[in-house]
Amino acid sequence: MATAPRPRTTTRDPGELARRLTDWLGTRLPGAEATGITVPASNGMSSETLLFDIEHPRAPVRACALRLAADPAAYTVFPVYDMARQYRTLRLVAGHTDVPVPRVLWLEEDPGPLGAPFFVMERAAGRVPPDVMPYTYEGSWLYAASDAERERLGSATIGLLARLHDQVPAAEAGFLTPPGAGDTLRRHVTAQRAYYAWVIDGLPRSPLIEAAFDRLEQLWPHEVGEPVLSWGDARIGNIVYDGFDPVAVLDWEMAALAPREVDLGWTVYLHRFFHDLAVASGQRGLPDLLRRDRVEARYARLTGHTPRDMDFHTLYAALRHAIVMLRVAYRQVYFGEAAVPADPDTLILHHDSLRAMVQGAYWDSRNTP
User: Fold this and answer.
1) Are 24 and 113 in contact (CB under 8 A)?
2) What SUPFAM superfamilies does the annotation carry (predicted)?
């Protein structure tokens, strides 16, 4: 999947979206026109993004990005798309931290104008480590960088997480508390169980995912830390960099109140996911970028909080990613791009590494921490 054409993500017509966007923009800024509308090649697998410019003498900004809730006719990745929640999260982070997030301009909760709710934000200039082809492959700008440049990028990225977790008052982020009972980690995992049940409704179950949930219970932390605002999709593929310095942190749809390690585990494992893809294809990958031991040590220096139970949290990250990958695979089946195999676990691109984590062999089987 990393090297194949991207699966279908929408049934919407870009030209029709452009016309309707210009009509809507005129209601917010009379006489304004949306020009240069494009869909980025790296458009996400869940929500859609449109890039455009505003032509108007009093435009608040010229370069914009529009985040549009997923096309309900396109077998959505997530069951709910709360654009107001994402908009509110971006405003909260901007108001309490120096973490660079895009300036949000407008929120439209009425699905009428574009067929789904959306918000508009300022577009940041820079470059993003790509998913396709993965940034860990030879030929990517990050692969071509020097060791010192990659270290700078990795260190700055962990610095972002440290400041986000330390600077946003948890009391102000109560609207991000996962539903249910128990502490925020228990609620977070319970929500993932509900998401998995939604993904497999009427479809083959994944024994591997269910074994991973069982293993989580065996590894459950004895002490769950105080909750912080967790970005949720904390990976370098969701950051715009100017050179090797972060200038915009994107994609907040999975934000929640959760222990710090939820973000740290996701950051560490999502890089390992792309690194493992490169190694599986016979390439070297980027083994020294975002190494688990270095991430933990840097975060501890910056915050005074030593990450704990990281075997649990990296497994949890791999499990969460597996559920998303299973949903994406079933969407390919829905659109006739793939068939369900005899073993549904093989639909999960990283099933080997997830199985190794369940067995407690993943980190020990590799020479890098």
Assistant:
1) yes
2) Protein kinase-like (PK-like)
Catalytic residue (choose from 233, 251, 263, 276): 233
Separation CA 304–CA 172 (nearest Å): 22
Closest by Cα among 286, 290, 188, 282 to 232: 188
Asked whether 256 and 115 are in contact (CB, 8 A), the reply is: no
Residue 25 near residue 34, CB atoms below 8 Å: yes
The verdict on whether 233 is a catalytic residue reads yes
Give CATH superfamily name and number for 14-122: Phosphorylase Kinase; domain 1 (3.30.200.20)
Residue 14 CA to its chain's centroid (Å) = 24
Any idea which architecture 147-358 has in CATH? Alpha-Beta Complex (3.90)
Q: Is 235 exposed, middle or buried (0-12, 13-18, 19+ CB in 10 A)?
A: buried
What is the residue extent of each domain of the chain? 14-122, 147-358
Q: What's the pLDDT tens digit per position in 4-28?
A: 444 445 556 767 888 899 899 999 9
**Those residues with Cβ within 8 angstroms of residue 226's Cβ, 6 or more apart along the chain or in another chain:** 170, 259
**pLDDT tens digits, 199-246:** 999 999 999 999 999 999 999 999 998 999 999 999 999 999 999 999
